[in-house]
Design brief:
single chain; 6-stranded parallel beta sheet; about 475 residues; alpha/beta; Rossmann fold
Length: about 475
């Protein structure tokens, strides 16, 4: 009897590029391993992504399905409590309907790999008795910070007794010296732990590991050595399979490229910046980009501008069309629109992996999103960290205090920015470079050497999925 190919359904958090991109890389890896893959995105997100159909040509086992998120067209879909509550109730029936349909096809659904930031697929999987794995697109240290919340409530440390968000939180195994109040999930600032939003989000967290068959995480063993063993106590099994973007590119003979993952981009990249980089000396350029979500005030933009110009180092700066805070109706000042005079080059969006791999780039000024950290490590580019939200605060602690591959910008003023750029690109560049070269070697070995860390773990994941079909 011919063995049926396992069918895996993957579903990212809608609208979040930082979640879609790594899960799409995982989908490609599993497809290449011979599994039948259905990648489920919402109609709203699908409109923003380019050329997904070409991936199905490159990966014949990879298929895309779209569902309604149940929200009106004019819904802002920003990552707020209301959004998570809405998709919990309104997207769930559409996801369930698709799974029921897929189970009338061949092959039927073997398992689901779900973005751990949304719980409705777990509810549906449990209802339909389909095994499900939790995917973590961010750092292990941030995920572990979620699991300490009940103990902090029990100890009387939540809600916070004052407004000092820099206060260090001690006594959390695995996060010693890393966790501050600002590094906890944002809802922890609520003054009442019985608040409906607080209770809802805590329940969402602990649904991640209840029915889950295991945790698939975009990290690698040596990157979060002290954290991963503690995280493993919360899951049946943990598969560290990152950095997924580099893993996928290496499989396609395009190591350090952006060709495959560019399909998960919400803006059209300006490739003219590569020609400008070609004209710059090696390791001289500071790349500046704060991801797909961060918004700033006009005053912050101007402080950044003056700090970058005054540093004397050439810079490539991504300023998204929607980068200005909605409270401000002002246009981007003319001097920014004109570009960086002799030293700077400004674009709406850049092909980030290609930029970071360019010989002219020597530093990365970032919001410290997890994908950006991993991309920086793989291209051996030290970091200036300017965290704003979510996992970015604890990621910054990891980067600056444990890995020692970058420095934090704590105050956004031009003199501080000038000093910190001069530090990264000049006085301490060699020190940071030595650290990041060492960590990048661990990542490269884990991906490229058979039997090593991430390479081995992806094989174990595939084997475990195939075993489900045999049961």
């Amino acid at each position: 009897m011919e063995q049926v190919v396992p069918h895996v359904v993957l579903h990212p958090l809608p609208t979040a590029l930082g979640h879609i991109k790594p899960l799409l890389c995982l989908a490609q890896l599993l497809s290449e391993a011979g599994l039948h893959i259905t990648f489920v995105i919402t109609h709203h997100t699908h409109k923003s992504l380019e050329n997904l159909s070409t991936l199905s040509t490159q990966f014949p086992n990879l298929h895309f399905e779209t569902i309604s998120d149940g929200l009106p067209d004019d819904h802002p879909r920003s990552l707020t409590f209301d959004f998570f509550y809405d998709i919990k109730t309104k997207t769930k029936p559409h996801f369930k309907e698709l799974l029921l349909f897929l189970n009338t096809q061949s092959p039927t659904v073997t398992c689901i790999i779900n973005d751990g930031c949304v719980s409705y697929p777990i509810d549906v999987a449990e209802e339909l008795k389909i095994p499900i794995f939790t995917f973590c697109p961010h750092s292990a240290c941030y995920l572990l910070s979620y699991f300490c919340i009940p103990k902090l409530i029990e100890d009387g440390r939540l809600p916070f007794s004052d407004d000092d968000m820099n206060c260090e939180i001690n006594g959390v195994p695995g996060l010693e010296g890393l966790l501050r109040r600002k590094g906890l999930p944002a809802f922890c600032v609520l003054k009442d732990v019985q608040h409906p939003a607080f209770q809802f989000l805590v329940k969402e967290i602990f649904s991640m590991n209840g029915y889950s068959s295991g945790l698939v995480i975009n990290s690698f063993d040596e990157l979060e050595l002290q954290i991963l063993p503690q995280l493993a106590t919360h899951y049946r099994k943990v598969y560290t399979v990152g950095p997924l973007h580099a893993f996928m590119n290496s499989k396609n003979g395009q190591y350090h490229s952006q060709l495959i993952t560019s399909h998960a981009c919400l803006w059209k990249a300006d490739h003219n910046c590569i020609a400008w980089l070609d004209s710059q000396p090696p390791r001289s350029v500071l790349y500046v980009s704060f991801g797909s979500l961060i918004k700033m005030s006009i005053s912050q933009l101007m402080e950044l501008w003056h700090g970058l110009v005054n540093s004397g180092h050439p810079f490539l700066w991504v300023i998204r069309p929607d980068a200005i805070s909605s409270e401000e109706e002002q246009m981007i000042p003319q001097e920014l629109q004109m570009g960086g005079k002799e030293k700077g080059y400004i674009v709406d969006w850049a092909p980030q992996e290609e930029v970071l791999a360019h010989h002219a780039v020597g530093g990365f000024f970032t919001h410290t999103g997890w994908n950006s950290i991993l991309e920086s490590i793989m291209t051996k580019i030290p970091l200036i960290c300017w965290p704003h939200m979510s996992d970015q605060h604890i990621n910054t602690e990891l980067v600056t205090k444990v890995l020692r591959i970058g420095v934090e910008l704590e105050v956004c003023d031009r003199s501080t920015i000038q000093t910190i750029v001069e530090t990264l690109m000049g006085t301490q560049m060699e020190e940071f470079q030595e650290s990041i070269n060492r960590i990048a070697k661990f990542a490269e070995d884990g991906i490229l050497q058979v039997g090593s860390s991430s390479n081995h773990n992806i094989q174990i994941l595939v084997a475990d999925i195939k075993k489900i079909k045999l049961n």
